[in-house]
Amino acid sequence: MVCLKDFDIIEVAERLGLQFVKNGPGNERIYRCPFCGDSTKHPNKGHLYVNARTGVFKCHRCGEEGNAITLWAKYHRVDAKTAYRQLRDGEFPECGPVPGESGGEDSGAGIDERDRVYRKFLGLLKLDPPHKADLLRRGLSEVQIHNNLYRSVPQDARFRWRVTRYLLEKGYSLKGIPGFFTRNGRYGPFWDFVSPAGYLIPVKDVQGRIQALQVRLDEGKYIWFSSHGMPNGTSSKAPTHYTGGRGKVWVTEGPLKADVASALLNAPFVGIPGVGAWKDVDGILEALSCKDPVVAFDADYRTNPNVAKALGDFIRSLKQNGYRPLVASWPASYGKGIDDVFLKLHREEVSSVTLTIEGVPVTIRRTVTTTVSVGK
């Protein structure tokens, strides 16, 4: 079941276009308050404190406070039930910055430039042992982890400054690159990048270009490497990920889940940003000339009406656009996600797993090379 903790309040603030002012103490970010407008005498000061860890906000000027759902509801002047539904289903009304103010966001660099900057950027970072251990636990090999360019988000401010300075000195523009923004320092503005504690997951397009980065937080949640609303910042726009590979194309939830499942099955996967965020899958399938993708949403669609609705809407949309989607299901004992299913084979906990794809049993066995048998 989708619950409050599944809604990241920072992402909600970014989607609303709130004007970022600066990082506050601990896990807090400070924004201009959209409810009282803050002080017109001091346009560069904000009083809305948003806590990324606890998921709550409070304006220390007008007293408005609440959680991610409350923030969305108050901004759009809807009730909490409507706000919950809109966030759950990805039904986002057009939002913008606080009237009369600007977050200074750039329209965004082109995909080739983003790919060029991100690859150089990731090459300057390292992967901390706990993050590497998490990826190994998921079933990825040392080579796959290296090739996929996972990196830890640097927490040291001076190191981040050295990274951005190096990129600029080497001729890489950071303007329009999601995640990067400018700060005001003693000697004038300087470039920095957002630094939530966690590791970076490259999100690629069908040509293998890095179009955005997602962050797997140490506490287990996922957020986008986005600087929307910050000075000279840019939104990631939460794109869909494609792993590359040959064979039958699968569609599942999340870039990292897609990477793991692709590595374990040795097949191409499309990783959508969320159960209700499948709008651009159509274009990816068209580019791949794939008419019959296997859709493998998490197994909780049987018990979670929200996931079931999103899956149903996705399947209907694909069929309306001329596709022939094949829905995969599996026993709950195999695990929640398709990556969990294949991990059982990888760990040799079972010798085979049987999925049901459009009513037909498909057995996948772990041998020297994975074999797939239909109807057995």
UniProtKB/TrEMBL annotation:
GO terms for biological process: DNA replication. It comes from the Bacteria. GO terms for molecular function: DNA binding; DNA-directed RNA polymerase activity; zinc ion binding. SUPFAM superfamilies: Zinc beta-ribbon. InterPro entries: DNA_primase_Znf_CHC2 (IPR036977), DUF3854 (IPR024385), Znf_CHC2 (IPR002694). It holds the Pfam family Zn_ribbon_DnaG. Residues 33-88 form the Zinc finger CHC2-type domain. This is CHC2 zinc finger.
